[in-house]
Amino acid sequence: MSSPVLLSIVESPAHPSLSVLYRRLGLDEVRVTSQRKAIALLKKRPPDWVVAEFYYGYGNNYAGANVSNLDVFLASLQKYAPDCRVVVLVDKAERQYVDRLAERFTLHRVLVQPVDEAGMAAVLEAD
Question: Do 86 and 67 contact (CB within 8 A), yes or no?
Fold first, then answer.
């Protein structure tokens, strides 16, 4: 039996480096640096977990169809890995907008940055 896959979508320096924790918990971490790369990976290796940062879309594109940087990825995730658990990391100032995303997509947990090893471990070990 293979190890569960955790997909880390690292789009900023604020994303915590928790590779040691993931290994200790028996998770096989795959790190990508963009939503585009994450979507491409879904087709090849569907994850069991996703850890991704949330950025609210203040621009025109997000004002209508999309709430954030995660909408397109989460729509693809529903197709390729519908049982995947999504952990969203968000800045305190943008926390209020995550609820709009959660109305459209299932989010396992939302963690306010900064996220440390103990906080992430509590989420991953609870399941």
Answer: no
